[in-house]
Amino acid sequence: MNGHNNNSRSNMTRESFRRKHLPFYKRKPFYITIILIIVVIIGIVTFWKINSKQEASKPTSETHKIEKVETKKKTKKVSPKKVTPKKAKEQKVEKETTPKEQESDNQQTEKTEKKPQNQIKNAGTYNDLTYDTDWYTFKISNEVKLVKDANGDAALLVKYNYTNKTSNSEIPQRVQNNAIILKQDGETLSPTGAKGDYAALINASNGGLVLPGKSFDGALIVKVKNTDSDVTMYFKNIQTNGFLDMTQPLKLK
């Protein structure tokens, strides 16, 4: 029996014998087990931290949503109470403003505010080639001509004398463009550029300032599509923002 054990030990190398008799905590399976346990613990801790952050973020998100909804509801309830009669009246006026009125310049708006509509004595009259209001007077000239515009197309030139009756300096073309329109075959004619002898006159009308109480000899020029059809001038009522019943036909032939 002892002989058999001695033979077994003689067959084992010293290194094999040493490994076989190592304590359990120095063996590879023990190290591998410890590493696996550490990895599992790290994974559990990481998962717990991520889950905790997600849970903590949920109440904050819901709180923001609630605050946003409440703000909207409060705005809807309070808004009608803050509208004063004066503001309601201003809103009504803005709603009734037409695109044509929006083209008028700031000076025209200032005049309206300084002189309320109920104080206007002459909202607009037209008689014997004279268009007159509390704000301005246009005397239409008999000199109506078919000319060529800056592009060589047919255009209608109408001379006038403009008198500024406001307390502000005014540009004749801006006042004329807001107060007088010309139509042919039911379509509004658009302003165009002039050339030759009429270019300086049109440029002065389009860019020159007329002082309060002063007059200016100017002209307007519009492009026409048909040189045979009559053109009709319409004049504005400054109180109603509509146009007068009186019109001025212009013969082109």
Automatic annotation (TrEMBL):
* Domain DUF5067: start-end pairs: 114-236
Alphabetized InterPro entries for the sequence = DUF5067, Immunoprotect_excell_Ig-like
| UniProtKB keywords | Membrane, Signal, Transmembrane, Transmembrane helix
- Could you tell me where the Basic and acidic residues compositional bias lies? 61-72, 87-116
Basic residues compositional bias: what residue ranges? 73-86
Where exactly are the transmembrane stretches of this chain?
29-48
Locate the region Disordered. Answer: 56-121
Which Pfam family is one of those matched by this entry?
A: DUF5067
Q: What is this protein called?
A: DUF5067 domain-containing protein
List the source organism. Answer: Companilactobacillus suantsaicola
